[in-house]
Amino acid sequence: MHDITQINYNYLTERIFSLRADDTGGFEALAIELFDLQYKYNPVYKAFCDSLQAGPGKVKKTEEIPFLPIELFKTQKLVTPFVKIDDLKVFTSSGTSQSGVSKHYVTDLSVYEKSFLQGFELFYGKPGDYCVLALLPSYLEREGSSLVYMAQKLIELSKHPQSNFYLHNLDEINKTLGELKKKKTKTLLLGVSYALLDLAETGAQLDENFIIMETGGMKGQREEMLKSELHQTLKTKLNIKQVHSEYGMTELLSQAYSKENGLFEDPPWMKIMIRDTNDPFSYLAPGKTGGINVIDLANLNSCAFISTQDLGKKYEDGKFELMGRFDNSDLRGCNLLVE
Protein backbone atom coordinates (compact mmCIF):
# COMPACT_ATOMS: atom_id res chain seq x y z
CA MET A 1 0.00 0.00 0.00
CA HIS A 2 1.20 3.50 -0.80
CA ASP A 3 0.22 6.70 0.99
CA ILE A 4 -3.50 5.95 0.63
CA THR A 5 -4.82 4.84 4.00
CA GLN A 6 -7.26 1.97 4.37
CA ILE A 7 -9.80 4.45 5.73
CA ASN A 8 -9.57 6.54 2.56
CA TYR A 9 -9.85 3.42 0.44
CA ASN A 10 -12.91 2.24 2.32
CA TYR A 11 -14.45 5.71 2.08
CA LEU A 12 -13.82 5.81 -1.67
CA THR A 13 -15.43 2.39 -2.09
CA GLU A 14 -18.41 3.48 -0.02
CA ARG A 15 -18.89 6.60 -2.14
CA ILE A 16 -18.73 4.59 -5.38
CA PHE A 17 -21.46 2.17 -4.34
CA SER A 18 -23.60 4.90 -2.80
CA LEU A 19 -24.00 6.69 -6.12
CA ARG A 20 -27.56 7.22 -7.35
CA ALA A 21 -28.58 6.89 -10.97
CA ASP A 22 -29.56 10.57 -11.18
CA ASP A 23 -26.35 11.85 -9.55
CA THR A 24 -24.43 12.68 -12.73
CA GLY A 25 -22.38 15.32 -10.93
CA GLY A 26 -21.33 12.85 -8.25
CA PHE A 27 -20.32 10.29 -10.87
CA GLU A 28 -18.31 12.87 -12.79
CA ALA A 29 -16.46 13.99 -9.65
CA LEU A 30 -15.66 10.41 -8.60
CA ALA A 31 -14.50 9.49 -12.10
CA ILE A 32 -12.06 12.40 -12.19
CA GLU A 33 -10.85 11.61 -8.67
CA LEU A 34 -10.27 7.97 -9.60
CA PHE A 35 -8.52 9.00 -12.80
CA ASP A 36 -6.09 11.11 -10.79
CA LEU A 37 -5.43 8.21 -8.40
CA GLN A 38 -5.01 5.57 -11.09
CA TYR A 39 -2.72 7.85 -13.07
CA LYS A 40 -0.57 8.19 -9.96
CA TYR A 41 -0.55 4.56 -8.80
CA ASN A 42 -1.05 2.43 -11.93
CA PRO A 43 2.25 2.50 -13.89
CA VAL A 44 0.80 0.96 -17.07
CA TYR A 45 -2.08 3.42 -17.17
CA LYS A 46 0.24 6.32 -16.36
CA ALA A 47 2.53 5.41 -19.26
CA PHE A 48 -0.47 5.24 -21.59
CA CYS A 49 -1.76 8.64 -20.43
CA ASP A 50 1.70 10.17 -20.72
CA SER A 51 1.94 8.96 -24.31
CA LEU A 52 -1.16 11.05 -25.00
CA GLN A 53 0.06 13.98 -22.85
CA ALA A 54 -3.06 13.66 -20.71
CA GLY A 55 -2.20 13.96 -17.03
CA PRO A 56 -4.38 14.98 -14.07
CA GLY A 57 -3.88 18.69 -14.65
CA LYS A 58 -5.27 18.46 -18.17
CA VAL A 59 -8.27 16.20 -17.50
CA LYS A 60 -11.25 18.10 -16.12
CA LYS A 61 -14.20 16.03 -17.37
CA THR A 62 -14.93 12.42 -18.31
CA GLU A 63 -14.75 13.16 -22.05
CA GLU A 64 -11.08 14.10 -21.59
CA ILE A 65 -10.10 10.90 -19.77
CA PRO A 66 -7.87 8.54 -21.79
CA PHE A 67 -9.52 5.13 -22.22
CA LEU A 68 -7.12 2.21 -22.11
CA PRO A 69 -7.43 -0.21 -25.06
CA ILE A 70 -8.92 -3.43 -23.74
CA GLU A 71 -6.22 -5.44 -25.58
CA LEU A 72 -3.68 -4.37 -22.95
CA PHE A 73 -5.31 -6.73 -20.45
CA LYS A 74 -3.74 -9.49 -22.57
CA THR A 75 -0.18 -8.22 -22.29
CA GLN A 76 0.07 -6.06 -19.15
CA LYS A 77 -0.49 -6.58 -15.44
CA LEU A 78 -2.96 -3.80 -14.73
CA VAL A 79 -3.00 -3.25 -10.98
CA THR A 80 -3.64 -0.12 -8.95
CA PRO A 81 -2.36 -1.35 -5.56
CA PHE A 82 -4.61 0.46 -3.10
CA VAL A 83 -4.76 -2.72 -1.02
CA LYS A 84 -2.32 -5.52 -0.25
CA ILE A 85 -2.23 -8.12 -3.00
CA ASP A 86 -1.47 -11.23 -0.96
CA ASP A 87 -4.81 -12.77 -1.98
CA LEU A 88 -4.67 -11.81 -5.64
CA LYS A 89 -7.41 -13.41 -7.77
CA VAL A 90 -6.89 -13.58 -11.53
CA PHE A 91 -9.92 -13.74 -13.80
CA THR A 92 -9.25 -14.83 -17.38
CA SER A 93 -11.16 -14.59 -20.64
CA SER A 94 -12.25 -17.63 -22.61
CA GLY A 95 -9.40 -17.24 -25.09
CA THR A 96 -11.57 -17.92 -28.14
CA SER A 97 -9.65 -15.22 -30.03
CA GLN A 98 -6.22 -15.97 -31.52
CA SER A 99 -4.73 -12.89 -29.94
CA GLY A 100 -4.46 -14.34 -26.44
CA VAL A 101 -6.22 -14.37 -23.09
CA SER A 102 -7.16 -11.33 -21.04
CA LYS A 103 -6.18 -11.35 -17.39
CA HIS A 104 -7.88 -9.19 -14.79
CA TYR A 105 -5.91 -9.06 -11.54
CA VAL A 106 -8.42 -8.53 -8.73
CA THR A 107 -6.82 -7.48 -5.47
CA ASP A 108 -10.08 -7.09 -3.54
CA LEU A 109 -12.82 -9.61 -4.25
CA SER A 110 -15.16 -7.82 -1.84
CA VAL A 111 -15.41 -4.96 -4.36
CA TYR A 112 -16.35 -7.38 -7.14
CA GLU A 113 -18.94 -9.07 -4.96
CA LYS A 114 -20.42 -5.75 -3.88
CA SER A 115 -20.61 -4.62 -7.49
CA PHE A 116 -22.35 -7.66 -8.96
CA LEU A 117 -24.65 -8.24 -5.98
CA GLN A 118 -25.72 -4.62 -5.64
CA GLY A 119 -26.14 -4.40 -9.41
CA PHE A 120 -28.22 -7.59 -9.52
CA GLU A 121 -30.45 -6.40 -6.69
CA LEU A 122 -30.92 -3.04 -8.41
CA PHE A 123 -32.39 -4.68 -11.52
CA TYR A 124 -33.82 -7.99 -10.25
CA GLY A 125 -34.19 -7.90 -6.48
CA LYS A 126 -32.71 -10.34 -3.98
CA PRO A 127 -31.12 -13.59 -5.21
CA GLY A 128 -33.16 -15.32 -2.54
CA ASP A 129 -36.29 -14.53 -4.55
CA TYR A 130 -35.20 -17.00 -7.25
CA CYS A 131 -34.13 -20.50 -8.00
CA VAL A 132 -30.91 -19.83 -9.94
CA LEU A 133 -29.82 -22.23 -12.69
CA ALA A 134 -26.57 -21.72 -14.60
CA LEU A 135 -26.22 -23.37 -18.00
CA LEU A 136 -22.60 -22.36 -18.61
CA PRO A 137 -20.67 -25.35 -19.99
CA SER A 138 -17.97 -23.37 -21.81
CA TYR A 139 -17.21 -21.39 -18.66
CA LEU A 140 -17.30 -24.34 -16.29
CA GLU A 141 -14.77 -26.23 -18.40
CA ARG A 142 -12.01 -23.76 -17.63
CA GLU A 143 -10.71 -21.97 -14.56
CA GLY A 144 -10.73 -18.29 -13.80
CA SER A 145 -14.18 -17.26 -15.07
CA SER A 146 -15.56 -14.16 -13.37
CA LEU A 147 -19.03 -15.14 -14.64
CA VAL A 148 -18.83 -18.53 -12.90
CA TYR A 149 -17.70 -16.75 -9.71
CA MET A 150 -20.76 -14.47 -9.89
CA ALA A 151 -23.14 -17.32 -10.73
CA GLN A 152 -21.78 -19.41 -7.84
CA LYS A 153 -22.47 -16.58 -5.41
CA LEU A 154 -25.99 -16.05 -6.77
CA ILE A 155 -26.67 -19.79 -6.48
CA GLU A 156 -25.45 -19.79 -2.87
CA LEU A 157 -27.50 -16.72 -1.94
CA SER A 158 -30.66 -18.05 -3.58
CA LYS A 159 -30.70 -20.84 -0.96
CA HIS A 160 -33.06 -22.79 -3.19
CA PRO A 161 -32.44 -26.57 -3.07
CA GLN A 162 -32.57 -26.85 -6.87
CA SER A 163 -30.26 -23.93 -7.64
CA ASN A 164 -27.24 -25.37 -9.40
CA PHE A 165 -24.81 -25.40 -12.34
CA TYR A 166 -25.46 -27.53 -15.38
CA LEU A 167 -22.81 -28.66 -17.84
CA HIS A 168 -24.06 -30.66 -20.85
CA ASN A 169 -26.86 -32.75 -19.33
CA LEU A 170 -29.96 -31.30 -20.99
CA ASP A 171 -32.18 -34.12 -19.73
CA GLU A 172 -31.31 -33.18 -16.17
CA ILE A 173 -32.00 -29.47 -16.59
CA ASN A 174 -35.24 -30.23 -18.46
CA LYS A 175 -36.40 -32.34 -15.54
CA THR A 176 -35.54 -29.52 -13.11
CA LEU A 177 -37.31 -26.93 -15.29
CA GLY A 178 -40.42 -29.12 -15.42
CA GLU A 179 -40.51 -29.44 -11.62
CA LEU A 180 -40.02 -25.70 -11.15
CA LYS A 181 -42.72 -24.92 -13.70
CA LYS A 182 -45.16 -27.22 -11.93
CA LYS A 183 -44.46 -25.48 -8.60
CA LYS A 184 -44.66 -22.01 -10.26
CA THR A 185 -41.21 -21.20 -8.84
CA LYS A 186 -39.67 -17.89 -9.83
CA THR A 187 -36.55 -19.00 -11.72
CA LEU A 188 -33.52 -17.30 -13.25
CA LEU A 189 -31.72 -19.34 -15.92
CA LEU A 190 -28.33 -17.89 -16.88
CA GLY A 191 -26.95 -19.43 -20.02
CA VAL A 192 -24.39 -19.03 -22.77
CA SER A 193 -26.08 -18.58 -26.17
CA TYR A 194 -25.29 -21.92 -27.78
CA ALA A 195 -26.35 -23.88 -24.67
CA LEU A 196 -29.68 -22.03 -24.52
CA LEU A 197 -30.25 -22.90 -28.19
CA ASP A 198 -29.45 -26.53 -27.42
CA LEU A 199 -32.01 -26.41 -24.61
CA ALA A 200 -34.62 -24.74 -26.81
CA GLU A 201 -34.25 -27.48 -29.43
CA THR A 202 -35.23 -30.12 -26.87
CA GLY A 203 -38.77 -28.75 -26.89
CA ALA A 204 -38.67 -27.25 -23.39
CA GLN A 205 -41.69 -25.00 -22.74
CA LEU A 206 -41.45 -22.32 -20.06
CA ASP A 207 -43.80 -19.65 -18.74
CA GLU A 208 -43.91 -16.22 -17.10
CA ASN A 209 -42.15 -17.48 -13.94
CA PHE A 210 -38.87 -17.93 -15.83
CA ILE A 211 -36.27 -15.30 -16.64
CA ILE A 212 -33.93 -16.49 -19.39
CA MET A 213 -30.70 -14.48 -19.46
CA GLU A 214 -28.09 -15.05 -22.16
CA THR A 215 -24.59 -14.21 -21.07
CA GLY A 216 -22.45 -14.55 -24.18
CA GLY A 217 -21.91 -15.85 -27.68
CA MET A 218 -21.47 -19.19 -29.38
CA LYS A 219 -17.92 -19.82 -28.08
CA GLY A 220 -17.07 -21.62 -31.31
CA GLN A 221 -19.84 -24.21 -30.76
CA ARG A 222 -22.31 -22.81 -33.30
CA GLU A 223 -22.35 -20.32 -36.14
CA GLU A 224 -22.63 -16.77 -34.84
CA MET A 225 -25.99 -15.05 -35.33
CA LEU A 226 -27.42 -11.59 -34.74
CA LYS A 227 -28.58 -11.09 -31.17
CA SER A 228 -32.06 -10.13 -32.39
CA GLU A 229 -32.27 -13.41 -34.33
CA LEU A 230 -31.01 -15.39 -31.33
CA HIS A 231 -33.56 -13.81 -29.01
CA GLN A 232 -36.45 -14.35 -31.42
CA THR A 233 -35.51 -18.01 -31.81
CA LEU A 234 -35.36 -18.51 -28.05
CA LYS A 235 -38.64 -16.69 -27.47
CA THR A 236 -40.45 -18.75 -30.08
CA LYS A 237 -39.06 -22.16 -29.09
CA LEU A 238 -39.19 -21.68 -25.30
CA ASN A 239 -42.59 -19.91 -25.29
CA ILE A 240 -41.34 -16.81 -23.45
CA LYS A 241 -42.01 -13.12 -24.09
CA GLN A 242 -38.53 -11.70 -23.51
CA VAL A 243 -34.92 -12.82 -23.38
CA HIS A 244 -32.75 -10.90 -20.94
CA SER A 245 -29.05 -10.22 -21.47
CA GLU A 246 -26.04 -9.47 -19.31
CA TYR A 247 -23.31 -7.17 -20.62
CA GLY A 248 -20.13 -7.99 -18.77
CA MET A 249 -16.60 -9.10 -19.48
CA THR A 250 -13.45 -10.33 -17.80
CA GLU A 251 -12.01 -6.81 -17.79
CA LEU A 252 -15.00 -5.31 -15.92
CA LEU A 253 -16.23 -5.84 -12.37
CA SER A 254 -19.71 -4.48 -13.14
CA GLN A 255 -22.53 -5.65 -15.40
CA ALA A 256 -25.26 -3.95 -17.38
CA TYR A 257 -28.56 -5.74 -17.98
CA SER A 258 -31.17 -5.80 -20.72
CA LYS A 259 -34.69 -6.88 -19.77
CA GLU A 260 -36.29 -6.34 -23.18
CA ASN A 261 -35.64 -5.38 -26.78
CA GLY A 262 -31.86 -5.54 -26.38
CA LEU A 263 -31.71 -2.23 -24.49
CA PHE A 264 -29.20 -2.26 -21.63
CA GLU A 265 -29.11 -0.25 -18.41
CA ASP A 266 -25.97 0.16 -16.34
CA PRO A 267 -25.69 0.57 -12.56
CA PRO A 268 -24.96 4.07 -11.17
CA TRP A 269 -21.20 3.38 -10.83
CA MET A 270 -20.84 2.36 -14.49
CA LYS A 271 -21.14 4.58 -17.57
CA ILE A 272 -21.15 3.78 -21.29
CA MET A 273 -19.77 6.35 -23.73
CA ILE A 274 -19.89 6.00 -27.53
CA ARG A 275 -16.71 7.07 -29.33
CA ASP A 276 -16.28 7.90 -32.99
CA THR A 277 -14.63 4.88 -34.65
CA ASN A 278 -12.53 7.23 -36.80
CA ASP A 279 -11.54 9.57 -33.94
CA PRO A 280 -11.28 7.86 -30.54
CA PHE A 281 -11.17 11.23 -28.73
CA SER A 282 -14.56 12.34 -30.08
CA TYR A 283 -17.94 11.20 -28.78
CA LEU A 284 -21.12 10.69 -30.76
CA ALA A 285 -24.61 12.07 -30.29
CA PRO A 286 -27.38 9.78 -28.99
CA GLY A 287 -28.57 7.24 -31.55
CA LYS A 288 -25.28 7.13 -33.47
CA THR A 289 -23.28 3.89 -33.72
CA GLY A 290 -19.67 3.88 -32.52
CA GLY A 291 -17.16 2.13 -30.30
CA ILE A 292 -18.09 1.50 -26.66
CA ASN A 293 -15.99 3.07 -23.92
CA VAL A 294 -16.74 2.00 -20.36
CA ILE A 295 -16.14 3.78 -17.08
CA ASP A 296 -16.44 1.12 -14.39
CA LEU A 297 -15.69 2.67 -11.02
CA ALA A 298 -15.73 -0.83 -9.50
CA ASN A 299 -12.41 -1.37 -11.32
CA LEU A 300 -10.93 0.55 -8.43
CA ASN A 301 -7.83 -1.62 -8.15
CA SER A 302 -7.14 -2.13 -11.87
CA CYS A 303 -8.20 0.41 -14.51
CA ALA A 304 -11.64 2.02 -14.55
CA PHE A 305 -11.44 3.50 -18.05
CA ILE A 306 -11.60 0.98 -20.88
CA SER A 307 -11.96 1.26 -24.64
CA THR A 308 -13.69 -1.94 -25.80
CA GLN A 309 -13.94 -3.60 -29.22
CA ASP A 310 -17.74 -3.53 -29.05
CA LEU A 311 -19.95 -1.38 -31.25
CA GLY A 312 -23.05 0.22 -29.83
CA LYS A 313 -25.33 3.19 -29.67
CA LYS A 314 -26.66 5.11 -26.67
CA TYR A 315 -30.04 6.79 -26.39
CA GLU A 316 -31.32 9.96 -24.74
CA ASP A 317 -32.66 8.02 -21.75
CA GLY A 318 -29.19 6.56 -21.04
CA LYS A 319 -29.96 3.04 -22.25
CA PHE A 320 -27.63 1.50 -24.81
CA GLU A 321 -27.71 -1.17 -27.48
CA LEU A 322 -25.02 -3.54 -28.74
CA MET A 323 -24.52 -3.51 -32.49
CA GLY A 324 -21.64 -5.94 -32.91
CA ARG A 325 -17.86 -5.96 -32.67
CA PHE A 326 -14.94 -4.73 -34.70
CA ASP A 327 -11.31 -5.66 -35.06
CA ASN A 328 -9.02 -2.72 -34.38
CA SER A 329 -6.63 -3.99 -37.04
CA ASP A 330 -9.31 -3.56 -39.69
CA LEU A 331 -11.87 -0.92 -38.82
CA ARG A 332 -13.51 -1.25 -42.20
CA GLY A 333 -14.84 -4.64 -41.13
CA CYS A 334 -17.05 -3.08 -38.48
CA ASN A 335 -19.43 -1.77 -41.13
CA LEU A 336 -20.57 -5.33 -41.81
CA LEU A 337 -21.91 -5.58 -38.27
CA VAL A 338 -23.86 -2.34 -38.13
CA GLU A 339 -27.57 -2.49 -38.79
Record the SSE blueprint.
Layout: H1 6-16, H2 24-41, H3 43-51, E1 68-69, E2 89-92, E3 103-106, H4 109-124, E4 131-135, H5 137-140, H6 146-158, E5 164-166, H7 170-183, E6 187-191, H8 193-200, E7 210-214, H9 227-238, E8 244-247, E9 256-260, E10 263-265, E11 270-276, E12 279-283, E13 290-296, E14 305-314, E15 320-325
Parallel strand pairs: 1-14, 4-5, 4-6, 6-7, 7-8
Antiparallel strand pairs: 2-3, 8-9, 9-10, 10-15, 11-12, 11-13, 13-14, 14-15
Helix pairs in contact: 2-3, 8-9
How does this structure look, described?
By secondary structure, the protein is of the alpha/beta class. The protein has 2 domains: 6-107 and 269-337, Luciferase, Domain 3 (Luciferase, domain 3, Roll); 125-245. It contains 9 helices and 15 strands. Strands 1, 4, 5, 6, 7, 8, 9, 10, 11, 12, 13, 14 and 15 form a 13-stranded mixed sheet that branches. A two-stranded antiparallel sheet has the order 2-3. A hairpin with a 2-residue loop joins strand 9 (256-260) and strand 10. Helix 2 (24-41) crosses helix 3 (43-51) and helix 8 (193-200) runs parallel beside helix 9 (227-238). The protein starts with 5 loop residues before the first helix and ends in a 14-residue tail after the last strand. 40% of the residues are buried.
